Fold this sequence. Notes:
The structure is a single chain. Helix 2 (50-61) links the parallel strand 2 (43-46) and strand 3 (69-71). Helix 1 (25-32) crosses helix 2. The model has no long low-confidence stretch (mean pLDDT 96). The chain has four helices and six strands; from the N terminus they run E-H-E-H-E-H-E-H-E-E. The radius of gyration is 14 Å and the shape is globular. The chain has one domain (2-144): Phosphoglycerate mutase-like (Rossmann fold, 3-Layer(aba) Sandwich). Strands 3-2-4-1-5-6 form a six-stranded mixed sheet. By secondary structure, it is of the alpha/beta class. Helices cover 26% and strands 21% of the residues. The longest helix has 12 residues, at 50-61. It has helices at residues 25-32, 50-61, 81-88, 104-113; strands spanning 2-7, 43-46, 69-71, 95-100, 127-132, 139-144. GO terms for molecular function: catalytic activity. It comes from Reinekea thalattae. Pfam families: His_Phos_1 (PF00300). InterPro entries: His_Pase_superF_clade-1 (IPR013078), His_PPase_superfam (IPR029033), PG/BPGM_mutase_AS (IPR001345).
Amino acid sequence: MRLYLMRHGEAEFNARDDIQRSLTATGRAAVASKTSFIEPVDRMVVSPYLRALQSSDILIAEGLSVQRRIVDERVTPDCDLQPVIDEVILPDVEVQLIVAHNPLLSRLIHLLCGEQAANIQLDTADLACLTGDFLPGCSSLLWLR
């Protein structure tokens, strides 16, 4: 089983609120450049924030095969990790992708991978690939791009 975690691309700062921040041209290009690193996805979970939605749209437009895409409010920047582990990441799905934000994603990597990922901080459009059981300390970070 694999879990991909992708932080949205670079976003503009001139929106009326954080939820409506749109990707910049640089952010769009950075997200598009990551598509080839992701195998076909059984389940994609996306934050309802505009920049995450746009990032997921770009991945699909660039040819990423996604069986099911779900928009989920439990993957916003400062949400609690426990519902993500207990309810968002499904144990019986072979390949999953979460497109969301920091600090959530960096905190999630730290929790799942333990000391191996203690210093990981995802930048915009960074993509991490994890394997193992997606429980605290039971995952391995395969790579970060």
